[in-house]
User: Which sequence fits this backbone?
């Protein structure tokens, strides 16, 4: 302990740099998490545009691929579940059976 107090000019910068490094690492991790969340929200919006198929711009296979990709959005489970239920209700009469089956699988997967 004597050495620590007698060499405080050496120890303080080391502790300061360690604290600064730890702060930078935590800040970077939080920034990456926020960026990932923003990318997931953007992708969810793109998938919903494909699923909605306004003006018949997207085909049947694109819609099914969008539903399959929605399985992978794990961080937004509750939101994706609500949107999948609404899409299932919306498409209950006018969609192909394969799309309805994929929506049912997505809903069942997210409710577990």
Assistant:
């Amino acid at each position: 302990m004597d050495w620590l107090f007698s060499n405080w000019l050496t120890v303080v910068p080391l502790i300061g740099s360690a604290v600064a490094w730890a702060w930078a690492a935590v800040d970077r991790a939080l920034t990456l998490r926020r960026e990932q969340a923003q990318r997931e929200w953007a992708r969810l919006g793109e998938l919903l545009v494909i699923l909605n198929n306004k003006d018949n711009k997207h085909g049947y296979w694109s819609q099914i691929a969008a539903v399959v990709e929605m399985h992978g959005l794990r961080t937004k489970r509750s939101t994706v579940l609500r949107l999948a239920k609404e899409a299932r209700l919306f498409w209950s009469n006018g969609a192909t059976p394969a799309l309805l089956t994929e929506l049912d699988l997505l809903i069942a997967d997210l409710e577990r």
In short: The mean pLDDT is 88.
